[in-house]
Amino acid sequence: MKKVSYQKYGGVNELEITETPIPEITETTVLVKVKAVSINPLDWKILAGEMKLMSGSKFPKGIGIDFSGVVEAVGSSISRFKKGDAVLGSVDQFKGGALAEYVLVTEKDITIKPETISFEKAAAIPVVGFAALQIFNKVITVNKGTEVLINGATGGIGMFATQIAKTKGAILTAVVSEKGMDLAKKWGSDFVINYQKENILAGEKLYDVVIDLSGQIPFDKARAIMKARATYVNTIPGPKQIIESFLHNLFSKQKYKVLLSKPSVADLHTLVNNVNEGMDVVIAKTYRMDDFKEAYKEVPRGGILGKAVFILGE
Ligand SMILES: NC(=O)c1ccc[n+]([C@@H]2O[C@H](COP(=O)([O-])OP(=O)(O)OC[C@H]3O[C@@H](n4cnc5c(N)ncnc54)[C@H](OP(=O)(O)O)[C@@H]3O)[C@@H](O)[C@H]2O)c1
Predict the structure, then answer these.
(1) What pLDDT was estimated at residue 314?
(2) Which residues touch 131 (CB under 8 Å, ≥6 apart)?
(3) CATH homologous superfamily of domain 2-125+281-311?
């Protein structure tokens, strides 16, 4: 089978299409023929070796985390899935390898894809959906009337976070680029600010929650727009920020929270239900597997509203 992989950490030029054997099914695994794979910032951060502590030094490595596809075969102890089921899910984020013709996963990595959700939209759900859902369910409390600011509201996590914030009754300010303004309004944002024209930190308004998805507003700067008991969420924390947040929270009423999201089959069910019931998933751009170099050059440059996705097969 074809698989995009790399032999050492680096940039796009390390990526290549290789021919590898189709993984062998075991008693407890499910073999999925991949139909679509989404592109995440984690892909190129891991490729660059920015997360070596977790991703280790064993090569070759595959790229791609979340996928959708059709079950090709199941192990003898699998009862929840059968050949022919349409599914979506994710592989271990630090091992990668979804950008391949087949992936081998366990039952807890996947769920059934309803017919109402296309393969390309399904592949865009897991990684960013887990992050957005877990921000609201594990990191912060948002109720009716909570003043929330989301910086980077039309990216992958922003797409889900914006819509979840509105279902919780937040008064939402979305910070986006010029081309994302209409989408942020469509998703229900009460106020939309164009970061290319306005410096959000110079505004008078104070928020209960500031979620930075862009890495552009560190906690020290965000405090200028936070209420006395507000919470800040960093979704791109390194070890330094994790220690800083812990120490800071011992002494201040303003809270500094970090997101370390994890795959969860329960959360995947919730997200699929939400999308099935109308939550919007926007695919800004699609690529073929052979265009992997172009994709991993273009998408990191930004300007993608929602997600970019590889489509495999016909
Ligand atoms: N901690 C965790 O568990 C976890 C899990 C998943 C992802 N992440 C990380 O979380 C981050 C966001 O993920 P994502 O998938 O949502 O990424 P994304 O799709 O690339 O979204 C980032 C957003 O930031 C916006 N942006 C860029 N510069 C900005 C600026 N100066 N001011 C305001 N917004 C700006 C971008 O808008 P334009 O492109 O329109 O400029 C884009 O909408 C990534 O770094 C990712 O690695 C963390």
Answers:
(1) 74
(2) 157, 160, 161, 235, 259, 261
(3) Medium-chain alcohol dehydrogenases, catalytic domain (3.90.180.10)
The Cα 97–Cα 6 span in angstroms is 10
The whole-number average pLDDT for the span 109-130 is: 98
Retrieve residue 73's tokens: 């075969």
pTM here is 0.97
Q: What are phi and psi of 88, to 5 degrees?
A: -140, 160
Residue 127: CB within 6 Å of ligand 1? yes
Q: What are 42-87's pLDDT values in tens digits?
A: 999 999 999 999 999 999 999 999 999 999 999 999 999 999 999 9
Residue-wise DSSP of 66-126: EEEEEEEEE-TT--S--TT-EEEEE--TTT---SBSEEEEEGGGEEEPPTTS-HHHHHTSH
Q: List, for residues 214-244, the tens digit of each pLDDT value.
A: 999 999 999 999 999 999 999 999 999 999 9
Closest CA to 276 of 101, 29, 111, 84: 111
180 Cα nearest atom in ligand 1: 40
Ligand 1 atom closest to the CA of 235, numbered from 1: 1
**What are the extents of the domains in the chain?**
2-125+281-311, 128-258
